[in-house]
Amino acid sequence: MAEQNAGQDINQLLKVRREKLADLQANGKDPFQVMKYDRTHHTSDVKELYTAHEEKLLAGREEVNTDGMEEAEAREAQKKDYEERRSIMDADPIQVSIAGRMMFKRVMGKASFANIQDLKGNIQIYVAKDSIGEELYATFKKSDIGDIWGVKGYAFRTRTGEISIHAEEMTLLSKSLQILPEKFHGLTDTDMRYRQRYVDLIMNQDSKEVFIKRSKIISEIRKFLDGQGFMEVETPMLVANAGGAAARPFETHYNALDEDVKLRISLELYLKRLIVGGLEKVYEIGRVFRNEGVDTRHNPEFTLMELYQAYTDYNGMMELTESLYRHLAQAVLGTTTIVYNGVEMDLGKPFERITMVDAVKKYAGVDFNEIHTLEEARAAAKEHHVEYEERHKKGDILNLFFEEFVEEHLIQPTFLMDHPVDISPLTKRKPENPEYVERFEFFMNGWEMANAYSELNDPIDQRARFAAQEEQFAAGDEEANHTDEDFLNALEIGMPPTGGIGFGIDRMVMLLTNSAAIRDVLLFPTMKSLDSDKKAAKPATPAEAEKPVEKIDFSNVKIEPLFEETVDFDTFSKSDFRAVKVKECVAVPKSKKLLQFTLDDGTGTDRTILSGIHAFYEPEELVGKTLIAITNLPPRPMMGIESCGMLLSAVNNLKDSEDEELHLLMVDNHIPAGAKLY
Question: What are the residue ranges of CATH 2.40.50.140 in the chain?
Answer without folding.
Answer: 2-180, 530-535+544-667
